[in-house]
Amino acid sequence: MKNITLEQLAEEYQKGKAVIEETEASLSVIKDEILDHLKKLKVDGLKTKNGYYVKRVRAMVYTRVSLSTAKELGATKTKEIIDIDLLRKMQTAGQKIVGAKQIVYVKVTAAE
């Protein structure tokens, strides 16, 4: 891959992203079909003939509970968190932050 141009690499990157998106969409349809099969069989799970365990998992998700509702229920807690914005400002101003490290990653977007 050393002789490949940046343009070709960007194109391949975008193609790879498209394949991932298509695969994720396909998996979503497959998951729905699996749930339909389990529902028709009136079971929450089973072992398939080809050696897989397939089961419907139920879990509660609380991401839509408002803070005010949680406060009313006494279901809040206070904890210290790192102020990333302040650390970023301090780093930009030249202060050394022990434990901070720089990461490098690729981002490819369509130029418009």
Q: How does the SSE layout of this entry go?
A:
Blueprint: H1 6-41, E1 45-47, E2 53-55, H2 67-72, H3 84-92
Antiparallel strand pairs: 1-2
Task: Give an overview of the whole structure.
The relative contact order is 0.08. The protein has a two-stranded antiparallel sheet. The chain starts with 5 loop residues before the first helix and ends in a 20-residue tail after the last helix. It is built from 3 helices and 2 strands. A hairpin with a 5-residue loop joins strand 1 and strand 2. The chain has 112 residues and is mostly helical.
TL;DR?
By secondary structure, the chain is mainly α. Helix content is 46%, strand content 5%.
